[in-house]
């Protein structure tokens, strides 16, 4: 079998979470960044005997790979994805796919037209507790769903100024809470109404470490209600996630602080708080998602558990939450104007 060739764009925390997964899958990885950090990352892994090489340009990276993995700041996603798609490459793209629905639709439509896959890296779908909860819901163990609650908290990102600028990151609703907005839809179905509030100043790194909180209430077409809360806290804020899903016949709940399945680690030498969730007890969810994505490239009938359409829908919900938070009014979600893209 021909060796998998992957092009990795970015060398920050999330790139360092993806790279071990690709290497576990036996891939040769080419890395490119605009600031020269690719050389440091490649040297670190090449020194351990891995086939990781820095390349000087985006064109060279695309020429030397079968798929491109985009682990760069959100504002860069669309242009990088479209360049890779135009070259006929599959694309893995970190969440969120883009900052606007229009940009995400453009990416999904281009991939579908080119016959390649666009994979939003919504890794929480691959965390065992969330996957098991959804299986229980689909299996009817909880009966009709009534109320779902999701929380996600971490230290406010301090290692890159773009996180603190909502114009670049989308703020806490888009950058952090998109995970749980996606999970709520994945579990309880289409969302028809969103009401959200945000508290705290979202601003660039280097300013006082304000606490930023947000809550979004989602009404699903089924009548179920999801409460999604997010927190960017002070530098000593531990990473923690919870869910509580209640139906007519039962309740399922999970707290990452109570179940020691996952912890914050830093891949390589990273700044304080630049941790990425990983697991000392079971397979890395990052490896699980990348394996599933790669398998789909050789099996046209395989639809991974997260599709381009899912990435677009998560942004639609997050944008509605941002608008609701801005205006103080609930936002009704219109019917989706998008073909049934699943690539």
Please tell me about this protein's structure.
This protein is an alpha/beta fold and 343 residues long. The protein has 2 domains: 119 residues, NAD(P)-binding Rossmann-like Domain (Rossmann fold); 179 residues, Dihydrodipicolinate Reductase, domain 2. The protein contains 11 helices and 15 strands. The strands form 3 sheets. Strands 12-11-7-10-9-8-15 form a 7-stranded mixed sheet. Strands 3-2-1-4-5-6 form a 6-stranded parallel sheet, with helices on both faces. Strand 5, helix 5 and strand 6 form a beta-alpha-beta unit. Helix 9 crosses helix 11. The two termini are 24 Å apart. The C terminus is likely disordered.
Strand tally is 15
Low-confidence stretches: 261-270, 337-342
The ordered H/E elements are EHEHEHEHEHEHEHHHEEEEEEEHHE
Strand order of the largest sheet: 12-11-7-10-9-8-15
Judging from the principal axes of the Cα atoms, what is the shape? globular
Beginning-to-end CA distance, first to last residue: 24 Å
The name of the CATH architecture of the largest domain is: 2-Layer Sandwich
Total number of helices? 11
- The share of residues in extended strands comes to 25-35%
* Major β-sheet profile: 7 strands, mixed
Relative helix content: 25-40%
The CATH topology annotation of the largest domain reads as Dihydrodipicolinate Reductase, domain 2
Summed up, the domain count is 2
Structural class comes to alpha/beta
CATH class of the largest domain: Alpha Beta
